[in-house]
Design brief:
single chain; 4 helices; about 70% helix; globular
């Protein structure tokens, strides 16, 4: 399966430590926020609420450095 241009850039960003890696956060946000907002909207049924959920989740994941590239792709991790 082909990855989008943004996803190719994330392959480079993903192995770096997440905590305090602002460029990787920005890249992930631009690449995945639309899909994550759609998932969040299905749950909260509010556009502004979905945006808040996505931003909060990404900040928590990045702050904790919780994602491990060796365990799988970033998008499914973020959705879960």
């Amino acid at each position: 399966m082909a990855r989008s241009h943004a996803s190719r850039g994330l392959t480079i960003a993903e192995p770096r430590p997440m905590a305090l890696d602002e460029p990787a956060f920005d890249l992930a946000y631009r690449a995945y926020a639309p899909r994550l907002r759609a998932v969040a909207y299905d749950i909260v049924r509010d556009r502004d609420g979905a945006e808040d959920v996505v931003h909060g989740a990404l900040v928590r994941v990045w702050s904790a450095g919780a994602y491990r590239p060796d365990r799988g792709a970033l998008l499914p991790f973020l959705i879960a």
